[in-house]
Each structure stands twice: as C-alpha cells, then as structure tokens.
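Problem 12. The chain below contains 161 residues. Write out its predicted structure in token notation.
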Amino acid sequence: MRSLHWPGLRQASAALAATGCLILAACGGGGGSAASQKAAVAAITANWKTVFDGKAPLPRRLALVQDGPQVAAFVQAQAKTSFGAAAAGSSATVSSVTIASPSQATVHYEVLLLGTPLLKNQVGTAVYLNGTWKVAIASFCGLAYLQYPKGSPKLPAVCRS
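Solution.
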C-alpha cells in the first residue's frame, strides 16, 4: 500500500476528496447591505464546508453545486473507488469570502483529509442561484482536473470544455 506522503497519491486523494465530498444547504442573499453581506458570507462558508464534508449525504451536497445533476454520475462513480472511501474523512476550512457581486463571491479555503490539509490556499468561486449560494461549476471542475486532464472522457461533460 502506498503512503499518503507520495505526491501523486496525495494529489489524487485530494481531488477525490474534493469531488467526492460535496455540499449541504444554506442560503443568504448577495445584496448590498452590511446585514445581507454578512448573511451571504455565512451561507457561503457553511455551504463550502459542506461541499467537502465526507459525512454529509451526497444528494444534499450535490444540490449545492452549480449544475450538480450534471456531475452526479461522476461523483457517484468516484465515491465507489478506494479514494472515494477515504474521502469520507474529508472536510474544508474557509479562511475568507469576498462578495464580488450580488451573484458571485470568491472563496479562499483548504481541503483536509482526517484533519490534515491536502489542498492548501485554494481559491474558488461561489454563485448565487435560485436563492442559494453554490460552489461554481468552474471550481468543481478545477478540482476534478487534479485527477483527470481537461478534456478527459472520465470527466463530466460540463468539465470537458
């Protein structure tokens, strides 16, 4: 068995933890008032953490990914691998959220596996859709590219372009 200290395995584990562990629900508007900005930051932080919560139910996590139904089969297939099993111990920390517009925010975060950082200093995008802040598909695909090259037939179609 290979050690998690092997760079390729570590990167693959991180990618699978990221793609195999998606989100929970929370919402908050992206409006301009201080109260609504604070609510949006809280919602984005909660949702982002849930994306990577390996113990959260997969359907709830997928519901918070932009185009979640389009990546569901990919995530479910990844969950059946040995890396997917390890992803049950994944989590995330959010260090900052910057609201860029009423419908978009920048998220600085880390992905952890069993409390140990796997992907440090990550930057992603959250989008506000139908009353819920979600992980942008570009952020999801960016993590999937850690495992498969862009254009790979193993990626969900939405990530191949």
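Discussion. Residues 7-159 form one domain. Students who got a different answer should revisit the alignment rule from Section 12.3.
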